[in-house]
C-alpha cells in the first residue's frame, strides 16, 4: 500500500500552499463576520492516522466539521476546534455575547459552526483551485461534537479505507478584539491525491514509497 513521503522541498511547497489557502480563508471569514481576522502561519506535518488521533487525545471536548473533496483529488477534510473556539466563533457569527460557561450546542450553534467551517474550507480550496488548475470542490459539511478521539474515530469510520495518513495543518486565527481561535485541519487524502498536487507543482518525483500491506 502506498504511503505519503515528503522531502523538505515538497513539504515547504505544501506549506506555502497552506499559507495562501489560510490567508484566503481569513479574508473570507473577515467579510462574513465583519471583523478583521488575522491568521498565523499554518504548521504542517504528515502523520499516520494513529498518530493523528494521538495529536488530539489529551484535549477537551471538541467540535469536528468534516467533508469530502471532489474526485479530482479524492480526500476528506476535518476541521477540529476546541469547544471554546467553536462556541466563540458561533457567538461571533450570531452576534451573541461570549458565554464561557456554555456546554450545549443549539441547532443555531451547529448551523453557524458548519457555516464558518464551510467558508474556511471553501475559501482555502478555492485558492488552491486557482493555483493548481484543478477543480477542488468541497461537499456538504457534517458536524460531530464529542471528545476529540471520538470525533476522529467517527470520521475515520465514515471514510473507511480511503487514507492511511493525515496531513495536519494547525491554524491560529485572531480577531480584532483580541479573541483567538485554534483550529486543526486534517487532510485525509488518498496517496495519489498528493501525487497529483505535487505534479502540478513540478515536485512529483519520489513523493510516494510503496510498503507491504
Number of domains: 1
CATH architecture: 3-Layer(aba) Sandwich
CATH topology: Chemotaxis protein chec
Low-confidence stretches: 205-213
Distance between the termini: 5 Å
Name of the level-1 CATH class: Alpha Beta
SSE layout and pairings?
Blueprint lengths: L1 E3 L3 H26 L3 E3 L3 E6 H6 L7 E8 L5 E8 H12 L12 H26 L9 E5 L1 H12 L5 E11 L4 E10 L1 H10 L7 E3 L3
Antiparallel strand pairs: 1-9, 2-7, 3-7, 4-5, 4-6, 5-8, 7-8
How would you describe this protein?
The chain is of the alpha+beta class and 213 residues long. It is built from 6 helices and 9 strands. The chain has one domain: Chemotaxis protein chec (3-Layer(aba) Sandwich). The protein is 43% helix and 27% strand. Strands 2, 3, 4, 5, 6, 7 and 8 form a 7-stranded antiparallel sheet that branches. Strands 1-9 form a two-stranded antiparallel ribbon. Strand 7 and strand 8 form a beta hairpin. The longest helix has 26 residues. The protein starts with a strand and ends with a strand.
Features:
213 residues; alpha+beta; Chemotaxis protein chec; seven-stranded antiparallel beta sheet; two-stranded antiparallel ribbon; 6 helices; 9 strands; 43% helix; globular; disordered C terminus
